[in-house]
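Appendix C reproduces, verbatim, an entry submitted by the partner laboratory led by Prof. M.T., so that reviewers can inspect both the input and the predicted structure.
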Amino acid sequence: MNSFFIDVQFLHYYIFIMNVLILSCNTGAGHNSAAKAIKETLDNHGHTCIIMDALAFGGQKASDLVCDAYIEMVKKAPKLFGEIYKIGNRIGQLNQETTKIRSPVYYVNKLYTNALEEYINQNNFDAVICVHIFAAEAMTSLKKHNRINIPFYFVATDYYCAPMVEETLPNTIFIAHKDSTFSYLNHGIDKNLIVPTGIPVSKRFLIKKDKAETRRELGFNDDDEIFLLMSGSMGFGDLLNTTRYILTNGTPDTKIVAITGHNEELYKEFETSFKDDPRLVLIGFTDKVSDYMDACDVLLTKPGGLSSTEALAKGIAIVHTAPIPGCESENVQFFMEHHLSVCAKEASDAGRLAIAVMNDKFLQEQLLKAQEHYKCEGSAEKIARYIESDAEKMHNV
C-alpha cells in the first residue's frame, strides 16, 4: 500500500490509497446498485476501485445461465424459491452445528476460485468487498485454504441474515440496521464480526429536492396525486392490475408514473393496456429515479433491500407490493415491525392500499416519522471509513 500526507485543518493524517475489488452478481439490480454506491464513495476518497461479476470468473455463459435461471424461478415459481430459501437456512444451521457441512452454493462458487485468485494477485488488490453471497462463498474458499492474505468484507443487501452467510469467513459483515443484529446472532454468527452500517445507496438518494420544484421540472402540477410504481429489474408482481385499480378508483388529479426499466415486454403491455388514459406516465429506463421519488406522494415498490432503502433515505410513504418468499418477505417483516411501510400480502391488495395511503395524511405522517427515526445515514461512507481504518491498522502492524 502506498501512503502520503494530507493537511486537513492543520492536522496531519495518513491516508492509504487502496486498490479495492468489489464482487457483485447480476441476480437482480440491487447488488450492483450497492456495489456502485460503495465504489462512488471509495472513488471520492481517492482509492482505486473496480466492480466485477463474481460468476463471470467461471465464464460469462455460466454467469448468464445462473442469473437467468434465478430470475426465471423468482418470476415463475416464487413458492419454490421460498422453499429453497428455507432449505438454505437449514443447511446453514447444520453448518454451525457440525462445522463440516457446506452448502451446494459453496461448492459451486468454489469452481471458479482459481481464476478469481489469479485476478486478485495480478492486480494487487488490498481488499475485496462482496455484495452477494456467491462472491462471499468464493472468497471463503480462498481464505479457508490460505490462498489470499488480504481482508474481505461482506455487505448485506437485505434486512435479515440470508441463508449461508454463516458458512462464510469475512473479516467483517456490514448489516442493514442495528435492529437486524439478532437475526445474525440467531444464525450463529460472531457478534464481533457484525457492524450495523446500513445498506449503501448512491448519494443522489441522500438528497431530498424541493417537491414542487421537482414536479415542475418533470412536467407535473402541484395538485397532482402522484403514485410512483417501480417494477424492479425483474418485473415481479401484478403491476397491470395494480395500475388498473388505481386509475379506476382514483381522481382526475391521479397520476401514475410507471418505471419499467429495461423490461421492454412490460413497457409494451402498459402501453397497450392504458394507451387511452393520460393519467399514466410510462417511463422506460431512466437516470431520474431519484427525482421521481422526490416528486411522488406514494411509492409502490417490491420489497428489495436496495429499492426499499433508497425510498427510506428519501422519506416517502411506501406501499410494498407482494414480496418474493424469502429475503423479500423478511424485508417486509422488518419494515412493518418498525412502521416504515404498509404491505400488500396479495398482488390484488397493492392498488387498494396505495389509494388508502394517498387519502390518509395522518398515516403518511406516521410512516415518514418512523422512517426519519430508523433510517441509517451515510452507509457507504461508514463502510469506506471502516475499511480504511482496517488498512491503517494493517499498515502499522
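The CA atoms of residues 224 and 253 lie 5 Å apart. Additional entries are available on request from the coordinating office.
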